[in-house]
Amino acid sequence: MAPVFMDLVGNLVASGELTAHRALGDDLYCHQPFCEQVLAQGCAFLFVCLPGSHALLYEWIADFERTAEVPTLVRTRWTGKQRLTDTYRWLNDLPLRDGEEALHVGWCELTTSDAEGNVLYHNAWASSQPISAANVIAVVAAGRSRWKIENENNNTLKAKGYSFEHNYGHGKRHLANLLASLTLLAFLAHTVLEPAKPPPTGRAAAPGRQI
Fold this sequence. Notes:
5 helices, 2 domains, six-stranded mixed sheet, disordered C terminus, about 25% strand, alpha+beta, single chain
């Protein structure tokens, strides 16, 4: 997956279509060789960063926690059903790995809990850009936006009748590309036509919804 991603980024940079963009990805991509490749293409990155694969980075975080030096921002919000508390934490200039040549990154974390203190969501990211109180909410929102793409597009293509899975990686010459393109065109057509879908039987149609 990483070589394919870098080929795509390289092509976009060469064509002038990629400027001041940020690569998003899960913890699989959050390692120094890949991060350096992304930066070499003139791209920033924001990757999920988990304790299990970044032990040294989290040791640094633990040191700052012991001296109460981890900046924290707390926000509450009402979802229409319950009140949630979002707790943001962040640090900068943390080593992504051991060694003198380690890449230093910014780190941020979001923990969402309900009124009873139950944790509903928790995740953390490593960023090539500095994180502060002024941008941590926007950075976290960017990191979480990857799941919107995954859930509303990729999972639909894989599990909702389009059968867009790894089997399209096979075929001679242009067969795989042709099948994948036809599937994406079908998904595009269905997405465009979705607003014109007739209402369920027994419900009055909203103005402008009938065709």
